[in-house]
Amino acid sequence: MIVKSLEDIKGTKDETSGENWTSRRFILNKEKVGFSLNDTIIKAGTDNFFWYKNHIEAVYCIEGEGEVESLKTGEVFQLKPGTMYLLNDYEKHRLRARTQMRMVCVFNPPLVGTETHNEEGYYPLLTE
């Protein structure tokens, strides 16, 4: 059994940040459970381009408000606490945060923990 609190992760190597986001990584590839789990903060007023060409990602909003836009279809979906979206087709997308947003994110394949978005907006597929 693995038990962690957010306080166990803040300020450690398992907390990773970009210009507009901070990701606290609870479960990683090293746990060998087939997925990773992150608690991610998206800064208010930001417009973020993401593309997980190597990962399927499920995102559950637990705080804040914003929207996600599919760049393939142009559809825009409103996000608020209790809303989930699944990037099950490696979609390029924009995430716009009206207020600070807190998201629970699940990745498959699991993240190693050191990933950050590259210049094309995606996480490289890393191995330990």
Radius of gyration: 14 Å
The succession of helices and strands, N to C, reads HEEEEEEEEEE
Judging from the principal axes of the Cα atoms, what is the shape? globular
Strand order of the largest sheet: 1-2-3-10-5-8
Structural class: mainly beta
Question: How many runs of DSSP E, i.e. beta strands?
Answer: 10
Largest sheet, strands/sense/barrel: 6 strands, antiparallel
Overall pLDDT level = 93
Strand content: 35-45%
Low-confidence stretches: none
Q: Enumerate how many helices there are, as a single number.
A: 1
The percent of residues in helical segments reads under 10%
User: What gap, in angstroms, lies between the N and C termini?
Assistant: 22 Å
Helix-strand blueprint:
Layout: H1 6-9, E1 15-17, E2 21-27, E3 36-42, E4 47-51, E5 56-63, E6 66-70, E7 76-79, E8 84-87, E9 92-97, E10 101-108
Antiparallel strand pairs: 1-2, 2-3, 3-10, 4-9, 5-8, 5-10, 6-7, 6-9
Structure write-up:
The strands form two sheets. This protein has a six-stranded antiparallel β-sheet, with no helix packed on it. The chain has a four-stranded antiparallel β-sheet with strand order 4-9-6-7, with no helix packed on it. The mean pLDDT is 93. 21% of the residues are buried. A hairpin with an 8-residue loop joins strand 2 and strand 3. The chain has one helix and ten strands; from the N terminus they run H-E-E-E-E-E-E-E-E-E-E. The protein has 128 residues and is mainly β. The radius of gyration is 14 Å and the shape is globular. Helix content is 3%, strand content 45%.
